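Write out the bound-state structure for magnesium ion.
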Amino acid sequence: MNTPVNPQYIDIQGVEQVFKTKKGPFCALQNVNLKVAKGEFVALIGHSGCGKSTLLNLIAGLTMPTQGVLLCANREIAGPGPERAVVFQNHSLLPWLTCFENVYLAVERVFSATQSKAQLKARTDAVLTMVGLTAAAQKRPGEISGGMKQRVGIARALSMEPKVLLLDEPFGALDALTRAKLQDELLQIVANTQSTVVMVTHDVDEAVLLSDKIVMMTNGPSATIGEVLSVDLPRPRNRVELAESTQYLHYRKAVIDFLYTRQAHVEKLTA
Ligand SMILES: Nc1ncnc2c1ncn2[C@@H]1O[C@H](COP(=O)(O)OP(=O)(O)O)[C@@H](O)[C@H]1O
Ligand SMILES: [Mg+2]
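---
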């Protein structure tokens, strides 16, 4: 079970993100405040276009906020870094490299200064085993399924031994059964590695199944955090058992109420 030790591992303070557009400034996020503890699994949920990816990109250091500050382990996030690995929905693998080589590239970038080639290879093999890809290691992305490609993306992120794993709808493009399988694997991996995870999703069940905390975002423009729901379901979690748990259904309903009752109409007005 995850035991948060540092209540402010990721600390987002008064963050605003205004984009310059042809039609003038567009305020995507306003006054976002969030703390994520070490070892915590946080889901960001909200309607399409509310600013989930914008917030994740800020934590990744891919963009800088127009106001406010983001800290990771008490340091300002000033750019991307291997301690904050990102997995995107479209996996972004290099098509001419094998699964092994795609992961090896990341391993090499992070560890080549301190480890031998044999160690880098062993590290790559280990992480491919962790996501169940040993048999497909020598295949190229064009030769494997969507689910397997996402596994390579997750393996690549894990291989860097990040302090924080950032996932942007990593299972969004997968069929329901593959998604369920990868969710279960992710639960297992996160339990083993004690990773701190921030995951963007618009899937209510995924959020409740995986998270310690569900951060519900209001609709944009000027989106912010509407509510934070603590999910106190014991771990390890089993999707079959949870389907009948009244506590699970209670959390599920709370998220659905937020998304489809309180945030439903605003979306229509701003669409
Ligand atoms: N680089 C950008 N320039 C201008 N507008 C952007 C940019 N990135 C995102 N936006 C806008 O910010 C809002 C939030 O986008 P995004 O974070 O991608 O939403 P989500 O991931 O929740 O679907 C949207 O209205 C989107 O059009
Ligand atoms: Mg997005």
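---
The chain is about 40% helix and 25% strand.
The chain has a mean pLDDT of 93.
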